[in-house]
Amino acid sequence: xxxxxxxxxxxNEALAALTSGAPLDETARLELAEHLAYCDLCLQRYTxxxxxxxxxxAERSCQESLWRRIRxxxxxxxTSRYAAAAAGxxxxxxxxxxSGYGSIRLPELPEDRPTVSDGLRKWNESLDSxxxxxxxxxxxxxxxxxxxxxxx
Length: 152
Ligand SMILES: [Zn+2]
Description:
By secondary structure, the chain is mainly α.
């Protein structure tokens, strides 16, 4: 079998033998590999021949087993990450509620707490006392004042 053409490139036979896996001697394999390493034209021809070759199908698909492993790993990550956090929260809440610190106690209101009507009544009383003080002041002034001097 000829490996090289007259112009120095690989023959179609050699490329077909290489892609089909035909038995080649060690020297021919070495020459083919060396030529494909530096010749872009023959590398492109080899790639085109490879693209036309039928693709191998796997005897057993790994899709189902991969999905099963991904699901199992997701469940493991979820449980290890969030179950520990949830257990910590439950433990903390149990401790807080069990000790009584967390119970909600409303403040006790005094029985005699002031109301709005009490405030108004106190306001009226203080206003009345202030007005009576003012009246007493002016009454005192009028008593001390000398009689009217209109007669002069
Ligand atoms: Zn070439």
